[in-house]
Amino acid sequence: MLRRGRASLAFSFFAQGAAFALLVTRIPAIQDRYGVSDALLPAFLAAVPILAGVGSVSTEQLVKRIPPSRVLRWAQPVVLLALLGVGAGDSVVELGVSLAAFGLAVGALDASMNMLGVSLQRAYGRSIMLSFHAVFSLGGIVGASLAWVGAHWHLALWVSYLPVVLVLLPAALVGSRWYVDAADGSGAEAEDEKAGGGGQGLAFKLLLPLCLVMCFAYIGDSTVSNWSAKYLQDVLGSSEQLATVPYNVYMVTTLVGRAIGDLGVRRFGAVAVVRCGALVAAVGFAVVAVAPGPWVGMLGFTLLGLGLCVLVPQTFAAAGRLFPGASDAAVARLNVFNYVGFLVGSPLVGALGDLWSYRGAMLVPMVLVLVTLVYARSFETQPDRYGGGHERPRTADVGRGSNGL
Questions:
Q1: Gap between the Cα atoms of 291 and 74, Å rounded
Q2: Could you tell me if 400 and 326 are in contact, meaning their C-beta atoms sit under 8 angstroms apart?
Q3: How far is CA 314 from the centre of its chain?
Q4: Are 129 and 117 a contacting pair, CB within 8 Å?
Q5: C-alpha span between 316 and 333 (Å, rounded)
Q6: What does the DSSP 8-state code read for residue 185?
Q7: pTM, entire model
Q8: Under a CB-based contact definition with an 8 Å cutoff, are residues 270 and 261 in contact?
Q9: Fewest Cβ atoms closer than 10 Å to its Cβ: which of 67, 70, 130, 223?
Q10: Distance between CA 204 and CA 336 in Å, rounded?
């Protein structure tokens, strides 16, 4: 039961990674298809994470009435169909409707996927969250590769998207039969539910450090995804072809880091892994900022992938441990800061680059990532008091912070 649940959830992460990559890597083609001006494009792009935040908050309310598995079961098809709508529309209005549907559904999808991941990790009694996010990275690599094929062969957007949707949509619906909800857990889970108050026990003072870590991690991630190519070409003097490589390298190293990250958590603990990831990411930003040429800059972006990749999965996992009886609500609220970081990161680096320098701008996400070290103890765990090896927050930590959200 748990193995099938884990495999089906991993496929959902894969499908989401592929769908998201197919959207963001074809933004220039989408702009050309609909004739969206450079002035209007940022509004369209900002609307997606804003609506995703709305979708995530709405999911917190939905899961009080229906299980997260049901939210995920229907959110994923909407994401895939909205992606197809983006590729097949004819007017700006149709593009806006498709992107709005994509954003709202992505928020629900991200929140419910991580809710199920947190509950499965608790059921397994060991770290497995990084493996789900590794599969997401793999899906992103596949999606970006398919997008390259579509661009190389000058395929219409709907021609690129349709085969992907036809494969992923039925597979996701079939796989959704084996999702495992938190309610499928043991008596200890039920006892936790009473203790957590079904979401009423969520304390903002405890959740805030994790929210900040999530936000800072996505500021770093959006810096790489939005500025790595421009930085390599305009600042470090690389060729146009070489400038496309850093993000691909970043995605591959993210996949590798997440694939082995769970082993590190089991061996050294979440705190050590998060601290190591933050330090490696900070070194990566420093290398990028002082790089004398494109190949050293490439090394910096490689280090960024290895460092940043562990922060987001471990933040979701820490929220689940910190609020074992209210993990769904904690994950939904924490997920909002994913989109906050995404919204802040790119404009922040761009503004600093224009006002100061792009080398100097890279030092800002470096400092923010280093702030994660201050909050590293929020990831601390102790052996499960119920038995079975589940990781739990320290009693002393849970006792601190009493103002509910």
A1: 46
A2: no
A3: 11
A4: yes
A5: 10
A6: S
A7: 0.85
A8: no
A9: 70
A10: 14
Does the structure show a pLDDT above 90 at 1? no
The CA-atom distances, in angstroms, between 134 and each of 99, 251, 314, 336 are 26, 10, 12, 21
From residue 326, give the alpha-carbon distance in Å to each of 153, 224, 230, 259: 49, 33, 42, 28
Q: What is the dihedral of CA 100, 202, 394, 122, to 10 degrees?
A: -50
Task: Break the chain into its structural domains and give their ranges.
Answer: 1-182, 204-382
Asked if residues 223 and 235 have their Cβ atoms less than 8 Å apart, the reply is no
Query: CATH for 1-182?
Result: 1.20.1250.20
- In the block, tokens 């085969």 appear at 163
Give the separation between CA 330 and CA 177, rounded to whole angstroms.
25
Rounded Cα distance between 221 and 343, Å, is 11
Q: Looking at domain 204-382, which CATH architecture does it have?
A: Up-down Bundle (1.20)
What does the pLDDT average to over 306-332? 93
Instruction: Please indicate whether the domains covering 1-182 and 204-382 agree at the CATH topology level.
Output: yes
Residue pair 351/286 in contact (Cβ under 8 Å)? The answer is no
H and E: helices and strands count for the chain: 18, 2
Which has more pLDDT, 360 or 202?
360
Per-residue pLDDT tens digits for 186-214? 333 434 444 444 444 567 788 999 999 99
Phi-psi region of 323 (alpha: psi -120 to 50; beta: other; left: phi over 0): beta
Q: Which two tokens stand for residue 278?
A: 């933050």
392 has which bridge partners?
A: 382
Please provide the size of the chain in residues. Answer: 405
Taking only Cα atoms into account, the Rg of the chain, rounded to an integer number of angstroms, comes to 20
Residue in the block written with tokens 């910190």:
322
Structure tokens at 128: 């497995």
Cβ burial of 39 (10 Å; 0-12, 13-18, 19+) is: exposed
> Residue 303: what pLDDT?
96
Q: Any long-range contacts for 146-154 (C-beta under 8 Å, 24+ apart)?
A: 146/18, 146/22, 147/21, 147/22, 147/25, 147/26, 148/25, 150/26, 150/29, 151/26, 151/29
pLDDT digit string, tens, across residues 105-133: 999 999 999 999 999 999 999 999 999 99
Q: Is a pLDDT exceeding 70 seen at residue 312?
A: yes
